[in-house]
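Below is how a single chain appears once it has passed through the pipeline. First comes the sequence as given, then the structure the pipeline wrote out for it. We keep one example in the README because the format questions we get most often are answered faster by looking than by reading.
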Amino acid sequence: MSGQSYQVGNLIQKMSSNDKDFRFMATNDLLVELQHDSIKLDDDTEKKIVKTLLSLLKDNNAEVQNLAVKCLGPLITKVKEAQVDNIVETLCSNMLADDDILKETSSIGLKTVISVIPIDANNLISAVCKNITGRLINAISQQQNVSIQLDTLEIFSDLLFRFGSVMSLYYNNIKEALMPQLNNSRSAVCKRAITCIAYITISCSDQLYDEILNHLLSELQKTEINNTKIYVNCITVVCKHSGSRMDPYLKSILEFAFEFVNSNDDDLKEACFQIFDIFVRRCPKEVSQYIQQIVNLCLKYISYDPNYNYDDDENDDEDMEMDNDLDDDNQSEEDFSDDDDMSWKVRRSSAKALEAIILTRLDLLEDFYKVISPVIIGQFKEREENVKVDIFSTYIALLRQTRAIIGNSENSDKFVSILRNQVPQIVRSLDRQLKEKSIKTRLSCFALLSELVNILPNALADPSTQADQKKNFLNNIIPGILYSLNSNNSTSSMKIEALAFLNVLLKTHKPEVFQNYFNALITEIKKAVSDQFYKITSEALLVMTQIIPIIRPSIQTPCDSTMKSFIDSMYTITLQKLVASEVDQEVKERAITCMAQLICTFGDVMGNLQEAFTLFLERLKNEVTRLTCVKACIKIVSVKFPQPLDLSPLFPKAFEVLAPFLRQNKRSLKFNTLLLIDAACKNYNNYTNTELNETILNQMPVLISESDLYISQLALTTITSMILSHKSFNAIIPQSILPEALVLIRSPLLQGNTLNAMLDFFRSIVQSGFPGLDYNELIVRLTQPIMQPNQNLQPLSKQAYYSISKCIAAISLLNEKTALTTVSNLIQQVQKPSILPNSHPDSVQLYSLLTIAEIGKKLDLESVQEQIQEAILESFNSNNKDVKSAASICLGSVSVGNLERYLPFVLYGISQKQRRQYLLLNALKEIINCSANDTNLIQHLQPHIKSIWDLLIEHANSVEEGTRYVVAECLGKVTLINYEIFLPELIKNLSSESSYVRDTVITAVRFTISDAPHDIDLLLKNYMNEVLKTLEDVDINVRRVALNTFNSTIHNKPTLVRDSLETILPLLYKETKVKAELVREVEMGPFKHTVDDGLDLRKAAYECMYTLLESCLDRIEMFEFLNHVEGGLKDNYDIKMLNYLIVIRLADLFPSALLQRLDSIVQILKETCQAKLKANAVKQEHEKQDELRRSAIRAFISIYKVPDADKNAFANDLMAMLKRDDLKPLLESVQNSNKANNEIPMEIEI
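Resulting structure:
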């Protein structure tokens, strides 16, 4: 400490030196120490430093003054309150001094102090606010010195923005000082006063808010235009910051705006349109009745240009003669300029207001295309560049809203048709703009066209209409692209955007439409590849990669001389980039990808590829390019040419390089390496040998693990390919790989594609006849965990029995005789499991029954049917429920092979209402499921279908929920078999007095709905209103299953309910509320526990709301929807988690709606992040709390990425809070998780 005191004392001494260099260096050193928090200050040292720094503010050296000001920031958080008061008081006094330099320096110092005070330092904030307000509030009215006024207003603006709640103590005094400044003759003073007033309205009382608004409205009634503009602007800014609090005044303000918008003052017109813009964004529901009037005004004034006469000759040319002349002699319309003409402000503000309407009223999209779209397209000719960019932005907003509808609505075809009909007008208007000198204009054109072609593939040229030159709009667009790629006409950014659009264009249109443009396009693309700027080169290589398969869409397409000339030139220029070592990594990677695409497309007609393959091998050895090179090689070896390529420069040496990749931690490298080895073994197995296979197989055992099932799947698939290539009879397979596969097969997670890969692996072993590893040996090893269980290991999961049974069935069915023998042995094991000495009887029965079931699905077991039936009936009496369940599955599976024998037996058993009827119903479910997609089996089922139906209806009233669910699934599947008869019968039962029957019927309806089209859909649509009326059912369980059925419907077949959403949504929203009558207290000993019986109902309701965003976005009244989302964000843990997902989806689909509720949603998220648990909270509660915070942060990050969200004060405040020490680890965890989720397996495109 003494050393630090000496150091600080030395700095203070030098800061007081007469030598300006000493003062500069000492002050700079102090700044460094303060920023690194490396010194601790006692009271005496604090006083000295503060005194010295404040004196340096008057230093005659400007650099020393600047450093002194910078020191105040970090110092203010380290000194005590008395010194803070001293600093603030001195700075305020200096601001009111006569010395202009000192005033400016002190002003900067105060702003620095305000900006660095932590938002949670309450005592410090209170002291600073009190001191500054007391000292400077009178300076607001000091009109003798405008600079003091401006600086003071800016300081109050910062104070009000950062510490509004503390400043509320002084709001009345500040308001009284600010209001007269709205009449100030200097516009800068007025603007800063307006900002301060707006910040006051964020957190002031309702009474003060009313006073401010009433004053502003009363002033609006005066006739002075200049003052009117100021007050209109003030109201605009206040509305922007106070949102829905403005609702009571909306009608009055709009009436003024509608009156003033027709004035002769362009600035006042602009202010009126800004009011429209803000009201539409902030009060969308309240302004709805005025939307049509606002739209009409916007359309009127978007073309308001009294001082210019547009030449519409070209726009009136109905023949749309395509002008391909690229001469730049035509003068740009924007060359016109008139400094006194302010009408552009009116056009720009009206365009922005239109954009706001488009973004907030998705329900009016069809009307927008009829009314707004033609006018905007006509205004693409706008002469002012900035206005033109905003007009383009408005139309792009319209296209983006259309994309949201097309992806999530049954009206997709209608909107596609509407937009396609407007394509000719769009292209006509853009034709000249694409050849403008203005870079901004052309960038906007490409942005608009990119949106258009993403929504409408083949929009600019459709092969079906290619003969009609009037519909081939590429004749307009391609010359515009070439114009922008020409180095004389464009900047680097312009070329990059032109190439990016060309890439999108090539992706979204059929190859044949580009045939006439290859020569011109490839010439410019090659020039771009040779460009010195690496970003242009990279983008050009990407475009070249895209155009290569368009030149030759299929390997069967013959190559003519023109095509070969393209190949040679593209190969040469790509090879140059591939050879170059001192180029950007992105260029290296895209050169590799481009060369791979070239070989994939033209490999059979290209000459010597030795050099390219040699370079691939080199790049494969390079850590920077190896992943890209692996992906490139996958593309090459996956193509089956008429004659295989000569890959000798690449393989087999590449296998030696690839094998170590399987040990790397990078997951993407591992799975791509496995894909490459698998493809190479299938298509180029002549390059492998036993030694290489052994090297690769040595890396495989560690990859077969339940920790990464996708890698396990690829590893098993690759091993299977190597086995079937007849070159992999390596000892490592039975010694190391098979044991790992047998461990994985016991995993409860094994299913789907990984399980199928496992089945193929075992089949390949049996088919290849491995020495010492025949069928019988495999059966022994597969059943070892059952027949000889290891007491030290965990018992097998139920899924493990299914997996083992499937594997045994798969290898047994390779030989029908073997399969029948196996079934006979399994029947004996079911009947006499105790004959196996070391095994558990229940485990043996379970595995045996499941294996018989798997074989019975594929093979007719008539020869052993008596024994099977007897074994199954005995198993029904087992004390083990899993054995009984397996027996019912087995009965259903073997019945499929002989319905005439088994089905009557099953139906009779169900009708007897025995205690095993649930098992028989489960068997019936298995029969129906297996028969549903087999026409032959359905025919065998038809004679019994009425009996089945009657039995199922009879059991629909079962008290047991499990039984009802099985009956519902069977009823749904049977209804699909003969829907014209059974669907009306099913719906009749909705009127049953029994809630159990209604529950079963609604669930059965859910099983009639699939994602694939079905003949039942038209009839089902007529009954959906009746089904969903059960959302009003008195029974809570009926309402819950009705919500589940509604959720399934809008996910799989939204067309069934879209027309009824107007009546369904109020019922849905009703179920999102917490209902007091469903909340009860349960006494548990000395404790009381609250039970919410409505929780599952609310969860189901919010799940429906989440699903609605997939396909019914255009039918949702978004502001009502958001009301319930906000309620859900304050609900129970599970409900909150669902609503975080809804917010994340809304941030992607409808960001403009979220922006309008940003303040309230962010505040709720902030409360969640700040919530504290009780001191006696257990570990599980802490984990739950952390997960809740992570989800809230994840939702907030999605919101914060929305354009303009980072301009919101509440959002910035929360982001600053998340970056502090206590929440920073959670923020980083979420960000890292988001990055990891972005890593997805590559889809190979050949």
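The mean pLDDT is 83.

See the next section for the split statistics.
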